[in-house]
Design brief:
alpha+beta, 3-stranded antiparallel beta sheet, about 30% strand, about 270 residues, 5-stranded mixed beta barrel, about 20% helix
């Protein structure tokens, strides 16, 4: 038995190799304590989401990184209507070699060989239509223009319910440090290349890397938040979207919310 669309992995439990491309910042979950949205590409070139994963509670040896192949047993997540969502058995996760480094591959050639053939959308509107018709919840596309990188204040602490979820203790499991609540929201304002898409779009960014960068900047300079935010903006706007880069947005939804968000940016040099 196969998934609804050709090329997607088998719906039954089986072993799959996945090239990890994005990981989102951990968020509290009532059912799973905390969740990390992980998405990657199969050997057949299909984007799939591995959900749910308690990433920080995995054995350290199984802490996969971006641009790294993993092996994992998965089956179709029957409680999730998205066609590209699969439930992993966390204890079966194994990393396959090291992440694809750019130290000796300055043009990101090996990464591009895997990722760029999956680019098939021209706009967020086109992807939203695919979500409505086929429940496709992941995609990568090149926007026409990134107009701005927007920083907005957010709550400084988790809610009581979120704290309660995060404090769940399970026997015989390592207990990582509590997730730091980042008191800002980050988003991109952009336009699409599709002539039928005539409006500006604002999408929230969930990539783990942006929150990790904020935490590192804060650790280095805890007293100048404005400077830290400017450095963060320089990275996520000026560096990632300068004319020397061939940059793409990787977007997806988080169950059960149908709203697309930025899960990551692929920004190889031209």
């Amino acid at each position: 038995m196969r998934s609804q669309s050709a090329g997607y992995p088998d719906v039954k439990l089986h072993n799959e190799e996945v090239f990890i491309v994005v990981k989102t910042y951990p968020r509290p979950s009532t059912k799973y304590r905390e969740l990390v949205c992980t998405a990657g590409i199969t050997k057949l070139g299909k984007w799939i989401q591995l959900y749910p994963i308690n990433y920080r509670y995995l054995d350290f040896d199984n802490w996969y990184k971006k641009y790294q192949w993993i092996s994992v047993e998965i089956s179709k997540n029957t409680s999730d209507f998205r066609i590209d969502s699969y439930r992993p058995i966390e204890k079966t996760i194994k990393t396959l070699g090291l992440p694809l480094s750019t130290d000796s591959d300055k043009k990101w050639s090996k990464r591009k060989e895997i990722i760029l053939p999956t680019v098939k959308f021209y706009s967020i509107k086109e992807l939203e239509e695919e979500y409505k018709s086929d429940k496709v919840s992941l995609g990568i596309f090149k926007p026409k223009e990134i107009i701005d990188f927007i920083i907005e204040p957010d709550t400084e602490t988790w809610s009581k319910n979120q704290l309660r979820n995060l404090s769940q203790i399970r026997l015989f499991e390592q207990q990582p440090k509590p997730i730091e609540k980042i008191p800002f929201r980050f988003s991109y304002l952009f336009t699409c290349k599709d002539s039928n898409c005539k409006t500006n779009h604002k999408l929230t960014i969930l990539d783990w890397e942006i929150f990790a960068l904020y935490r590192n900047l804060k650790k280095q300079n805890p007293y100048d938040i404005d400077l830290n935010l400017q450095k963060l903006k320089d990275r996520w706007l000026t560096d990632m979207w300068n004319p020397k880069r061939d940059s793409y947005l990787i977007v997806g939804t988080q169950y059960p919310n149908p709203t697309f968000m930025v899960l990551g940016v692929f920004w190889p040099p031209k």
